[in-house]
Amino acid sequence: MLYQFYEMQRATLAPMRMFAHGALSLMDAPFNPLRPTPMGRLAVAALDSFEHSTRAFGKPAFGHTQTIVAGQTVPVVEHVVQSRTWGDLVHFRRVGVEGAPKVLMVAPMSGHFATLLRGTVEAFLPDHDVYITDWHNARDVPVMAADFDFDDYVDYVSDFIRILGPDTHVIAVCQPAVPVLAAVALMNARESEAAPRSMTLIGGPIDTREGPTAVNDFAKQHDMDWFRANTIHRVPFGNAGFLRQVYPGFLQLAGFLSMNLDRHVEAHWQMFEHLVQGDDDSLASKRAFYGEYRSVMDLNASFYLQTIEAVFREHLLPRGLLTVRGEQVEPAANTRTATLTIEGERDDISGIGQTRAAHALMPNLSDDKKQHIEQAGVGHYGLFNGRRFRTEVAPQIKAFIAKNA
């Protein structure tokens, strides 16, 4: 019933949001003498803050329409290479530019849309032919459609790599590190000629026994019956996925916010102050972040529960017990795909050592095809977005791809 109550709350707040929106339009009118007064600025800030904090954020657009290649502005066209029930393979085609290394970015299916990697895509567009996995919101997938679980995720990644070809370089951000490593290991074992050239794992939970964080501790402290009873809900009426069992995105967002609640409260207070002071630049940057951060999607129950059990509770991959479609996953089979692992010194989601653990699982991959980076002073989000990513992390990934192209 929790999902239904959440939808009822949104419906209840809708008239108040409409009132706030109308009042804002009136206050912002050029003829309103109260607008420039201290009381007027305070009223606008209060109304705007209420409207923004109660808004339901849908899936944002990637918005990449151009990039700079060799000093020249080049149009970028976003199109779907393959559309499937649970996700699309999206290509950011640089018009008139050919021959760059192909990069497949595997976006996390952990509560946010693939647009969370908008900045990651932007950083690679000037030098690479970029593709991304654009996962679908479970609440929009009809209950009669095929189910989606951990094995399906691995299959999707493998299929997308086959479509792009063996010269592909795969980048997995956070959650997909485990299924991407599984897909690459299986491809090396079955069809090594089809395996990708390189694999970059960024802040991923390969072995959560290393450097455990609050996220890992929470998963260990609750058994699977608790997760089934407290985190799985049916999609309410009025959505395409009515009655589908999901882990709702708003629960994941609540978990994210609670991990650093004081920081988020302070950020929202600062946004209120920016509104009062008319500091539009500072306000815009924070608004852009929270517009993305609060855009969440539901996860299919089967996938979510299997991930919790296999990755965070039973550690099946590092223990050599992970299977996909009944086939044993052997990371040691990887002798072709060069592997780069990246961790952040201040990562409070995937702790130090969790991603690096991938290298110990691949003893047959030559040392010249292995590399690890521990990025000083960077948290989880900074590993794939923001200034430090653009200036420090991305150049190292690009160098690794060039070395193994």
**Major sheet:** 9 strands, mixed
**Mean pLDDT value:** 89
Structural class determined from secondary elements:
alpha/beta
Basic shape: globular
- The CATH homologous superfamily name of the largest domain equals Alpha/Beta hydrolase fold, catalytic domain
Kindly identify the CATH topology of the largest domain. Answer: Rossmann fold
Distance between the termini: 51 Å
Report the β-strand fraction as a percent range: 15-25%
**Gyration radius, in Å:** 22 Å
Broad CATH class of the largest domain: Alpha Beta
Question: What is the helix/strand order?
Answer: HHEEEEHEHEHEHHEEHHHEHEEEHEH
Whole-number count of domains: 2
Would you kindly provide a written description of the structure presented here, covering whatever features stand out?
- The chain has helices spanning 2-27, 38-53, 118-124, 150-164, 177-190, 214-221, 224-231, 249-259, 261-277, 280-293, 301-313, 357-360, 387-403, and strands at 66-69, 72-83, 87-94, 102-106, 129-135, 168-173, 198-202, 233-234, 245-247, 299-300, 323-324, 327-328, 338-344, 370-375.
- The relative contact order is 0.13.
- α3 (118-124) packs across α13 (387-403) and α9 packs antiparallel against α10.
- It folds into two domains: 1-56; 66-217 and 299-403, 3-Layer(aba) Sandwich (Rossmann fold).
- The mean pLDDT is 89.
- The strands form three sheets. It has a nine-stranded mixed β-sheet with strand order 1-2-3-5-4-6-7-13-14, with helices on both faces. A three-stranded antiparallel β-sheet has the order 8-9-10. Strands 11-12 form a two-stranded antiparallel ribbon.
- The chain has 405 residues and is of the alpha/beta class.
- The protein contains 13 helices and 14 strands.
